[in-house]
What does this fold into?
Amino acid sequence: MEILSAIIVVVGLIIFETVASIDNAIINADILSTMKDWARRWFLTWGLIIAVFGVRGILPWLVIWVSAPSLGPIGALTATFSGDATAALAIEQSAPFLLLGGGIFMIFLFLHWFMAEQKNCIVPGEFVMSKQGPWFYAVASIILFAIIFFVSTQINPYLGIAAAAGAMVYFIMMGFRLFADKKSAELEHAAHDEEKSAKAHHHSDISKLLLLEVIDASFSVDGVVGAFAFTMSVPLILIGNGIGALIVRELTIRNIDNIRKYAYLKNGAMYSIFCLGLVMCAEACGIELPVWFAPLLTIIIVGVFMALSIRKIKRSDYGVCELPKKE
It folds into this structure.
C-alpha cells in the first residue's frame, strides 16, 4: 500500500473512531463523575490499556484470523504488509464474507438509531422516523431476508451465512448494551442512596468499573467493524483505532461538556456508519471502490454535521426528537 493511501486511511479511521465513540465518552464521563478518585485513576490508566491494546487491538486481528484461518495468528497480523502472495490470496478470498457481515451489522446499527432512538433532528424525516421504533425489527428482517436471498442465489450461497452472522453479532451486541444501560441506571440509583455503607460504595465502584469495561467493549465493536470498510490491513486499523480511542479518552477526562455542545456529531457518526455499511456490502458483491473513497466519505459527512452543529451553537436553537412515552 502506498504511503499516501495509508495516511488517508489512518486519518479516516481516527475521525471515524473518534466521532463514533462520542456517546461512549459521554457515558463514561457521567459514570466516572459518581466514582471515587481511586476508581477513576484505575479506569483512566488500566482501562485505557484494555480499551486500546486489548479490545481494539485484539478484535481486528481476531476477525482476520477467523475469516482466513489458513493464515495463522501471526500471518493474520502481518499479511497485508508481508507481500506473501498466499496470504494476500487468503485475505482476498475471505474479504467478501467479512465485508458483507460487517455491512449488515453497520446498516442495522444505523436503522436502530434512525427509527428507535432519541436524537437531535436536523435531516428531513428524522423526527417522523424516530417514532417508528416498533417497525425496526420488521424492516431489519425484510432487509436481511432480501440480502440473503440475493447473495445466496446470485453470487455465493455462503455469503448468506455471512449476512446472518453479521445480524447475529448486531443483536448480541445490542443485548450487551441494553444490559449495560440497565445496570448503569441501577448503579446511579444506588449512588444516591445515602443509607449505603462505605463498603457498599466500594463494591459499587468495582461494579461501575466492570460496567465501564463492558460499555467500552460494546462500543469498540462499531469502530472495529467499520474499520474494514477503510482497509483490510490490521496494522493500519490498530494505528487508526488506537489513536481514536486515545482521543476519546482525553475527551472523557477534559472536554466532555464542550463536546455535548456539538449536537449533530452523533448524527454524522450514524450517517457515516450507514454509508460505510453500504460500501462494505457493495464491495462484498464485487463492486470495487478506490481506497480513498471510504475515508473521504467519512470526512465529508462528519465535516457537514460538524458545520451544522457549529451553526446550531451560534443560533442556540435546540430541537430534540421526543420519542413516544411507554404506557
Remarks:
- The chain has twelve helices and no strands.
- Residues 94 and 175 are 28 Å apart (CA to CA).
- Confidence is low (pLDDT under 50) at residues 194-200, 322-327.
